[in-house]
Structures are given as C-alpha cells and as structure tokens.
C-alpha cells in the first residue's frame, strides 16, 4: 500500500515518484506487479483501506507484487522482460547521448 500524510497535489506527486521507484525495484528483482486503483476512486473504500495503526494517512495506491509466470502480453505487445530490456537500452542511449 502506498499512502501519504496529506491528500494535496504535492502529496500526489510525491506518491507518483515513490511508485516509480517501487516499480523499478520490482522489475530489477525480476518480480511481477499490478496496480489496484479502482477502490481508491471511492472515498469510503479508500478510507477503509488505510492502516489505523499508522494514523490517518491517505491511501494512494495498492500494489500487488510477487514472483510467478509471465502474464499475457500487454496491449502494447510487450512482456515485462522485453520491457525491462527495452528500458535498459533506452536508459543506456539517453545516458550515452548526453551533451558534454
């Protein structure tokens, strides 16, 4: 679960940045993930998802992650492994082509 202390646009931006880091770590470890966001669209469900032991944080996203067989191809036609490979290549090209 990804949550923030407040629910303002700045908190949403930080949550997205944290989500990006989390998803990259999941990929780096060869795991699969899926985002469960539909419940977050309903305020009463969003409030029920929070962990009362940690206060009144605002849940921004539920993340399901783990190891398992690769799922079907995405609508873009990429599997997780090929996406990881393409991302690595793109990052290499971007870093390698910096002016300097």
Largest sheet: 3 strands, antiparallel
Global geometry: globular
Overall pLDDT level: 75
The helix-and-strand class reads alpha+beta
Question: What is the CA-atom radius of gyration, in angstroms?
Answer: 17 Å
End-to-end distance: 41 Å
What quaternary form is this?
Answer: single chain
Number of helices: 3
Write out key terms for the chains shown.
100 residues; alpha+beta; 3-stranded antiparallel beta sheet; 3 helices; disordered C terminus
Would you write up a description of this structure?
This protein is an alpha+beta fold. The chain has helices at 9-28, 43-49, 80-96; strands at residues 2-4, 32-36, 58-66. A 3-stranded antiparallel sheet has the order 1-3-2, sandwiched between helices. The chain is globular, with a radius of gyration of 17 Å.
Short account of what is shown:
The protein has 3 helices and 3 strands.
Give the topology.
Blueprint: E1 2-4, H1 9-28, E2 32-36, H2 43-49, E3 58-66, H3 80-96
Antiparallel strand pairs: 1-3, 2-3
